[in-house]
Design brief:
5 strands, 101 residues, alpha+beta, 2 helices, five-stranded antiparallel beta sheet
Length: 101
């Protein structure tokens, strides 16, 4: 994974407790070599009583789950019923897959 994620959308778990999704506004190398990202959140989160629009996440801590792509945006734009139908179709396709010997 490239260290500079500026302009990319990511999701993860902030401080191991708060799910988030947002756009990386800045990536920087901190003293000591660890990479830190400033993330503008898609939806605000409440962290220990404080509402956050931006958070700082470090690369080496496991807070970042993955970099999002167009498929994630497409799925997020679906209605809950469309998402359920999509996931049901995926599960059916997995069951029909032949892994024969």
């Amino acid at each position: 994974m490239d260290w500079n994620l500026e302009g990319k959308r990511i999701n993860g778990i902030y401080l191991g407790l708060f799910p988030f999704k947002g756009m990386v506004m800045e990536s920087r190398v901190k003293y000591g070599g660890q990479v830190q990202h400033t993330v503008a959140l898609d939806e605000t989160i409440k962290v220990f009583g404080e509402v956050r629009e931006y958070i700082l996440v470090d690369t080496g801590t496991g807070e970042i789950n993955r970099i999002l792509d167009e498929q994630d945006d497409l799925f997020d734009s679906m209605t809950p019923a469309e998402q359920e139908a999509f996931l049901y179709g995926y599960e059916m396709a997995k069951e029909d897959t032949y892994y024969g010997a």
